[in-house]
Amino acid sequence: MLQPVSPSADLPADAPAAPAPALTVSTLSPLAFPAFRIIWIANLFANLGTWAQSVAAAWIITTEQSSPLMVAMIQVAAAFPLVALSILTGVLADNYDRRKVMLIGMLLELAGGVFITVLAFAGLLHPITLIASVFCIAIGSAVVTPAWQAAVGEQVPRAHVGSAVLLNSVNYNVARAVGPAIGGLLLGAMGAPWVFLLNCFCYGGLIWAIWRWKRDLPVRRLPPEGIFEGVIAALRYTQHSTVTRVVMLRSFAFGLSASALWALLPLLAHDHEAGSALLYGYMLGALGVGAILGSAVVRRVQAAWGASGLVTVTAALLAACLLALGLTSTLWVVFPALLLSGSCWIGVLATYNTTVQMLVPDWVKARALALYQTSIFGGLAAGSFMWGHFAGTMGVSGALATAGVMLGITVALLYRSRLPEQVNTQSLARVDSTEPAMAAAGFNTQHGSVLVAVEYLIPKEKLSALIGAAHPLRLLRLRNGAQQWQLFRDLEREGVWREVFLVESWMQYLRMIDRLTLADKMVLDEVRALHSGDKPPVVSRNVSYLAMNEAQGFSLRRDPESL
After folding, report:
1. How many angstroms separate the CA atoms of 15 and 426, rounded?
2. 514 vs 366: CA distance, rounded Å
3. Is 460 helix (H, G, I), strand (E, B) or coil?
């Protein structure tokens, strides 16, 4: 598990211990849960089809004598929708049935796959139409990805989420090891259209598995958030969440340099003296095998070195591998470098993903994962375009070597941006608020700001403790939805302090209460324990006159004579 980045991070260090899980947590333990196991197997076949198709697609665009930039544009087309749309689809995944959101996105992906297949059989599949089709499929993927990743916690108990994330990465990389070989063999034996058709059938199996997945839906106490409202809430949370910001920064920087591996690998295979579709498939297979081998040791290495140590070392090793790929074309060096690159890749991405999964509360989890995906795929998209351009001017080898140097510099610059190590999963469980339920009859709950003031009586000997507790209290309020927050001292009444925060509307205030986790409650309890007096702190809730006027059907007009 993971812990705050620093003493002033987002979660208290003294969170209560979690009860021991009924099943011992291990890398394979999530497979004991039927829902996860069935979806995992179906996803394996879907990934096999996807990677087989990727070989056919990349080889078509390479053999058409396209420019290096055009080849790299495949990666751009696949990544751009994930960058542009993930936060929007993350709002949907946090507010609606994630299973239904996944099914809608998967049907869009399947429709794109069928379209590519029809074009291929008709002989109309060319670089431009291929890139456009990949872009359309990526739109469906942007719908699926946030819901898919956040739904892991609905398939296994929270204690097994980290292992489930790692197994999903293993799934992807097993397919990456085997799928390209299948694609290369089918491409040589039957042609690209049949490879695309195979992918459609494989993906249909995953849609069936998600369709038959039945589970209890989480109870929602409030109506769903709107798209704009949900995006603002996610950005506000990220602004005041140290962990989320660090993961986004480091993942973007990693993707920007490491994207050269995927963007230029087809060209590396094609330019080799033994270049063929089969060689490209073997290269992708080496990356997949390396990832599988790396997944077997990720948990042990992270336990020994910590999350930050694991990410730093593996990113540095990947930089060395990129440099080696750029400096030599000897296959006895290329394939070991690709094996090690696959291990490093899964070590970095699985650690980032698990960090977000474990340190973000459920109400914003899909959006936080979407922002993480936006960062990593933003780096991949920008990097793919950049390295494709550089390959056209300095050659594939020069671009790969430059990417290795750039990644090494990035590792050194971000060394002090530490990832968390441990936190108890129970601290992020939602808790019922102790504040009284209040009816909102008589005013508009969607408009008009709410000003909340909490009055504390703090003796002098506890003043330093209050000042120390103010920072985590401020982060708590701002992460959960407050627009502004301040702590004031009353100059006329000795020992009186007021916590004052402003919320956009009454509905947002209700959402703030609904978002409280056990960790949040511990912060509030720590502050309230400093309060002296026979009665609890006095809470004052004030609603703007704008809510009153709109509720009564009046429009506010300014009298010109009053100006």
Report:
1. 8
2. 17
3. helix
Q: Is 496 helix (H, G, I), strand (E, B) or coil?
A: strand
Q: Count CA atoms closer than 13 A to 158's CA, side-chain side.
A: 20
pLDDT in tens, 194-251: 888 888 999 899 999 999 888 777 777 788 888 899 999 999 998 898 888 889 999 9
Q: Which tokens go with 270?
A: 């094609």
CB 378 within 8 A of CB 328: no
Dump pLDDT digits (tens) for 402-446.
999 999 999 999 888 877 765 555 677 777 665 555 555 567 778
Cβ-contact 53, 248 below 8 angstroms? no
Q: Where are the strands (E) in 127-262, listed by range? A: none
Bridge partners of 543? 450
Q: DSSP assignment, residue 415?
A: T
Residues 6 or more apart in contact with residue 52 via CB below 8 angstroms:
179, 180, 182, 183, 186, 195, 198, 199
Q: Are 269 and 278 in contact (CB under 8 A)?
A: no
CA pair distance 198, 129, nearest whole angstrom: 20
3-state secondary structure of 4: coil
What are 153's two structure tokens?
Answer: 């916690």
pLDDT of 316 reads 93
- The Cα–Cα gap between 183 and 47 comes to 12
Residue type, position 427, single letter = S
What span, in angstroms and rounded, lies between the C-alpha atoms of 192 and 413?
44
Tokens of 158: 């929270």
User: What is the dihedral sign for C-alpha 73, 109, 170, 415?
Assistant: positive
Other CB atoms within a 10 A radius of the CB of residue 540 amount to: 11
CB 333 within 8 A of CB 293: no
Q: Which H or E element spans position 238?
A: helix 227-239
Position 23 scores a pLDDT of: 67
**H or E element in which residue 163 lies:** helix 161-189
Chain segment 461-499, per-residue pLDDT in tens = 999 999 999 999 999 999 999 999 999 999 999 899 999
DSSP string for residues in 44-76: HHHHHHHHHHHHHHHHHHHHTT--HHHHHHHHH
Q: How far apart are CA 365 and CA 506, in angstroms?
A: 23
Burial of 335 by CB count in 10 Å (0-12 exposed, 13-18 middle, 19+ buried)? middle
Q: Sheet holding 538-543: strands in order across?
A: 482-489, 496-503, 450-457, 538-543
Cβ neighbours of residue 525 closer than 8 Å, sequence gap 6 or more? none
Taking the CA atoms of residue 158, residue 163, residue 169 and residue 170 in that order, the dihedral angle to the nearest 10 degrees is: -150
Residues 6+ apart with CB under 8 A from 207: 103, 106, 107, 110
Q: What are phi and psi of 13, to 5 degrees?
A: -75, -20
Residue type, 546: L
Average pLDDT over residues 69-94: 79
DSSP 271-285: HSTT--HHHHHHHHH
> Assign residue 533 a region: left if phi > 0, alpha if psi is -120 to 50, beta otherwise?
left
The rounded distance, in Å, linking the Cα atoms of 364 and 237 is 8
In angstroms, rounded to a whole number, what is the distance separating the alpha carbons of residues 543 and 450? 5
For residues 538 and 533, give the distance between their C-alpha atoms in angstroms, rounded to a whole number: 11
